[in-house]
Automatic annotation (TrEMBL):
Keyword Transmembrane belongs to the record: yes
Family annotation (SUPFAM superfamilies): Nucleotide cyclase
Highest rank taxon of the organism: Bacteria
EC number per UniProt: 2.7.7.65
GO MF term set: diguanylate cyclase activity
Pfam short name (any one): GGDEF
Species per Swiss-Prot/TrEMBL record: Actinoplanes subglobosus
Keywords: Membrane, Nucleotidyltransferase, Transferase, Transmembrane, Transmembrane helix
Transmembrane feature ranges: 5-21, 27-46, 58-78, 90-111, 118-138, 158-175, 187-205, 211-227, 248-268, 274-293
Top enzyme class: transferase
Residues of the GGDEF domain: 337-468
Name of the molecule in the record: Diguanylate cyclase domain-containing protein
Amino acid sequence: MTLLRLYAALAGLVVVTYLAWPEQQQGWPLMLVTLSPLPALVVGLFRAPAGTRLAPWLLLGGTLVYDVGNAVWSWLLATDGRAVADADPIVGVAMTGGGALILAASLVVVLQRGRADIGGIIDSVIVAVGLGGVLWNTVLLPAMTAHDMSTGQQVSRFINVLLLSGTLGALLRVVIISDQRMMSVRLLGVSVGFALMENVAAAVGADWVNLPYMAAFVAVGCAALHPSMREVTVPGQAPVDHLNTGRLVFLGIMLAIAPVIGGIRAMMGLPIDGVLLAVSSAGMIPLVMVRIARLSNARREAERALRRMATSDPLTGLPNRAACVARIETELAAGPDDLAVLFCDLDGFKPVNDRLGHAAGDALLIGVADHLRGGLRDADLVSRFGGDEFVIVCRGSGAADAMVDRIRCLVAKVIPAGGEQVRIGVSVGLAHARPGDTVDDILTRADLAMYEAKQRKQIGALSLAHSA
């Protein structure tokens, strides 16, 4: 923090005294300040954990590209004052390239810190197009038109504003979803804010145009030196992405804001950028549609997950009692022919659970479940009915015999549990469906047959009984 305070004090002093320098010499303090974040970014780069340094590298690269443009402008200004005439194309390319790299760094932060928050990236683009279009139509375009700036200058400025708006949106997304204060991200956001202010000042021809530009670089340096920089790309909490009323209102506002502002200006007889209005509207509609589609898909996936939780056993992943009963109802409605229910109870499970612990008992249940569902036909169902009880529903000639053979293989194998190799016996009650059966009828017969089989049980063996 001492290094951060020293850097902020020295760089800030250069910024506040900038206008006191002779005009022909102002390029040197400008270049000094814009170069100052580079050592800080190198420090921040090596502070970041290995494997999470892509964003700092991109931020460093973007700052270097900006500095190329600054160096050209400063050199021409200091030599013969031809900066505006000769440096504009080079500076324009540098501003666009540097902005693109810094935007890429921000999106990497969203992906890494926000755990692949694709929805957040789409939101950032929507914010960039919406708010950037408003800033362009209401402030920048009228001012640049009034100052007779060339089409090339206007295009370069527009792209730069668009990139900066996207960067600010991405950084705000990280701040919103972060479970920490993330001061480095906030400082980077301040830097982007200063850069946008510089674009406005340049468009209106303000004398102090370089002050916010220099302040933007100081903010980048402070962000790189702040201790929270090492946490910027460390994965945080997975973002919650719900389709709620607030999100839909936000998307609607961003979709409508540029056309509404453009329409109001047109009715007032003020100049508007028709090309921008058409491009932004055409670009915004598919973005919003994609965003809504993603949110809708996320909601459907959440509903499917809830249904899975309601019908699945959380330990083994097998269908639970409710799913089993529903399946038997469906099968009985289709007819009783060749429909069989096997009610299975593990013999010797309680001693294993008591001697080796509940974790070993869980491992044993998982091993039994994996064996029973291995090679299962689509038409068959294996469910965990509760505790150490499993119910199998199958249909077809020989289907019940095939399942009995699978259970016979189960009792012949050993299952790892609690660091030991365990063998388990199974008591099986088999009931065939009859005309007029209900779910309770067939399950009761299978259950009674299982208890009959258990009477002659032998631990580590298969005991089978058929219902009367």
